[in-house]
Design a protein that fits this description.
The complex is a heterodimer of chains A (502) and B (363). Chain A is built from twelve helices and 16 strands. Chain A is of the alpha+beta class. Chain A folds into three domains: 134 residues, no CATH class; 97 residues, Beta-Lactamase (2-Layer Sandwich); 144 residues, 2-Layer Sandwich (Alpha-Beta Plaits), CATH 3.30.70. In chain A, the strands form three sheets. In chain A, strands 1, 2, 3, 4, 5, 6 and 7 form a seven-stranded antiparallel β-sheet that branches. In chain A, strands 12-14-15-13-16 form a five-stranded mixed β-sheet. Chain A has a four-stranded antiparallel β-sheet with strand order 8-11-10-9, sandwiched between helices. Chain A starts with a helix and ends in an 8-residue tail after the last helix. Chain B has two domains: 142 residues, Rossmann fold (3-Layer(aba) Sandwich); 146 residues, Response regulator (Rossmann fold, 3-Layer(aba) Sandwich). In chain B, the strands form two sheets. Chain B has a six-stranded parallel β-sheet with strand order 2-1-3-4-5-11, with helices on both faces. In chain B, 43% of the residues lie in helices and 18% in strands. The chains are: A alpha+beta (502), B alpha/beta (363). The interface between A and B is large, with 42 and 42 residues.
Chain lengths: 502, 363
Amino acid sequence: MKKEKEKGSKRFVYTAIAGSVVLMIVLTLSTLWASRKTVSSTDEAVAAVSSFYLEAMADQRAQTITNLINSNFEHMEKALDVIEEEQVESQEDLRRLLGEIKRLLSLQRFALVDTDNVVYTQYTTYSGGSRYDFLQAKELQGNVISTINMYGSSKQLCLAIPVKGLTIMGKPVKACFVQIDIREIADLLAFEDDGRTYFGLYAENGGNLTDTDLGQIISGENFLKGTKDYLSQESWQRVSSDFAEGKSGSVTLNAGGMMEALCYTSVPYTGWMMAVLIRESIIEEQIHGISDNNRLTSRMLILVTLITVLAFASVLILQLRKTSTIKLEAEKATSRLFQSMANIDSMTGIRNKHAYSEYERMLNSKIQEGDLGGKLAVLVCDINGLKYVNDTLGHAAGDQLIKDASNLLCEYFDHGAVFRVGGDEFTIILHDKGFERMDEDLAAINRVIEDNITKEKVVVSIGHSVLREDDKQIKDAFERADQMMYERKQELKAMGAKTRES
Amino acid sequence: MFFGVKKIRKAAFLAAAVAVIAISQAGCATESVTQSALPKEDKPPSPVVSAVDFEHELDSYVPKKDEYNFYFTYKIVHPWWDAVALGMEDAQRQYLERGVTVTYEYMAPSEASAEDQKERLSLLEPDDYDVVGVDVADDAIISPVLDEMMDEGFKIMTFSSSDASEGCKRIAYVGNTHNYQDGADLTEALCEKLGYKGKVAILVGSKGAPCHEDRARGAKDTIAKYTDMEIVAVEYDMDSIDKAYDLTLGIIKDHPDLDGIICCNMSNPVGAARAITEKGSSAVIVGMDHDKEALRYLNDGIIYCLGVQDCYSIGFDTIQVAVKIADGNPPGVLYPDKANEITTIIYQEDAAMMLKLLYGDIL
């Protein structure tokens, strides 16, 4: 039974260890798998994020240009309101007024055009018929947005609105316009981002409006010409077609192994295309940085889990061992208790007949082996008048009498082995020191017993016999002592001690 | 920042610098400073990187006043003079940055007319303008007018491509001083291309316009050097592309075996190229200036070569000289009587770069 319990405990420990190991393996493998899955998902996400990011940037910048255009149109309308209220009688008056309006409304070249296509600005008055295409018409049909090439010096956005009913120095005014250097628009749209992104403004034929480089692979040249070597024929034709039709799109360029994400969108009303470019490795670096952190966190998690599981397993094993030990000890104690209960007389607390039998068997073995080691005596004791007490005073008094007898015997033969072997019978084995004191102790106890007769206290008849050399077993001495006990009982009766009958 | 906005400008500046060095080393210190990169025997024409300098800075002269007001008039409303205007505006901006306000009028008729120019000048008052600049429409008609104005107290300068007659009292001239040589150089290139043999026509701009007449003269004198070359027609388009086209059609009709056409102004080569293309003629065209359509014809091989004047520099220098004249400085130390501006002959291989430089590769 005990062995089965130990086996069960071991099985539990082994199962716990094996479970922990399996748990750790599963955890580790799942984390590694999740980590790899994250990396591959990251790569897939980079392209999508690049495109999305660039699209948002392009749209945002295109919207800024649209806002700029709208605000300039509004400013021109306000400017015309101001001019209509002013008395302009000379070239000087007009120049001063135009200068004031430019300053107040933060306009760049702000000009009025009369019906002879003479252009009036703050500092110059010039014939502008060949300089501005929108002046070819006799009158403007609405707001005009055009791109002007100032030969090699710059390219400018020109915004014009028709003017009616305004006369300056006797000349009807035909139009009003502002010119904005496209490079200044580009500066407005640029922001510092450590060169991570690039953008450029282009005409629908790919012509570069700002003479700027788009990243490291497309220099300040025609966009379509610059991208031709980095795109497949099909992709390039799609981009060219998108440019011609003013459609948005995105492509990925492979420039010497470096992947560049490129997004383009039309800038409303201008006929321009805006291209935004970012190196995918920049986004990869950003996202992989996060990925690496996640992987590091996962590894740390694995390590912590591993340590936790190991610690848990260790504690579990120690706890199991401790529990087993406690159980074992408890079982031993129980065993001892059961053994004790089997050998102890419950009423008196001294050893019982079962114990005496084992003890006698052990002594007999030694006698037979000649290994007894010293002299031994057997004392046979019997309580006088127990039946009488039971019958007259009740069993409780009888039990007390037994306890008194036991206490008395144990008191005087404290170096001997005292056994209750029957209802009112005790056997005492004296050995070594107990044997040496036997005569002295017998004399003392018999005096007490004899005194007890008159005191009506416990009276015990004691017979004794020393184990002789020719005795084969304890029983031999026991019988002699028993005989002597009966004789003593008679003596005590004669002294007045109670008998079974009295 | 990732914007190299000055790249093109710097390239142009460097190219112009190279061109200037090339001129000086070639020993062109005479009246003509034309950089005629003429092709040598069995050698392709030397590539001309750039003919226009957009990178200018005012010299160290300190103006005596804070404000100047000028009046300029030129032959005709035309893109060529728009390029001159850009150079003028650049100078005006730079003076403004130095605290000097320069204002001016820059006016022209929609059709070339010496009488219109005369009338415009007659409306001016000496006190209204510090300097009056004139791109002479017809030297015979305008030069006396300028002399009268000088007598009235006007400070007169001439500019752009046409100076007044020799002996005119005008103070100085800024512009092309070598129109005759330009005509001669273009014609020389044509003669070489034709193997110094063939029939050619000359298209001229406005009658009496000094620059056009001088170029035509240079062309005629060059043709005269070669006995196997013959001039079959000389016509004036009055600075009209449509008229140049019509005239060319007529010349081709009259001379189906025409070998070449010499064009003396900006509209001539455009009209001639349109007609040549339409009729499938093999006539070789040489001409002047940087019209966008002409440059495309050059790029396509329809036009053989073009003489490109540095209009931007002409405009820039005109304002600088005008300020010095306004301050009462005579020509000599601070500015020359005639400021030299270069003309560069460009060929087919240079056309794309010139188109991009001037027109920015936009539609």
